[in-house]
Amino acid sequence: MFALLISDEAWLNGTNAMLGIVAAIALLAVGSAVFHDVMAHLRVRAAERRHFVFDDHSIQVPELGLMMADGGEPIQPPEEKK
Predict the structure, then answer these.
(1) Model confidence pLDDT, tens digit, residues 4-46
(2) Which residues, 6 or more positions from 75, have their beta carbon under 8 angstroms from its beta carbon?
(3) How far is CA 31 from CA 11, 19, 41, 48, 79, in A?
């Protein structure tokens, strides 16, 4: 077991181990940066399309663009009084 530390190539094994650790850290950093960039892009796209998904008062017409069903402002449902 201790023959690896006493051998003439111990410095080479140590160097390879350190380079492997540095490469793993670099891959982790790049991977996390790509992940956060993709997630930010997906959040922006979801925010842009949110009014199409949750707003049942508006409709997208290709020739006219976004328009309201009755031509006015969305009507909020009345709140229940306690």
Answers:
(1) 667 788 888 889 999 999 999 999 999 999 999 999 999 988 8
(2) 57
(3) 30, 18, 15, 26, 47
Q: 12-49: string of b/e by CB count within 10 Å (b at 16+)?
A: eeeeeeeeeeeeeeeeeeeeeeeeeeeeeeeeeeeeee
Q: What is the pTM of this model?
A: 0.51
Task: Select from 62, 60, 61, 58 the least CA-distant residue to 72.
Answer: 58
Residue type, 71: G
Closest listed residue to residue 13, CA positions, set 21, 5, 1: 5
Contact 81, 73 (CB under 8 A): no
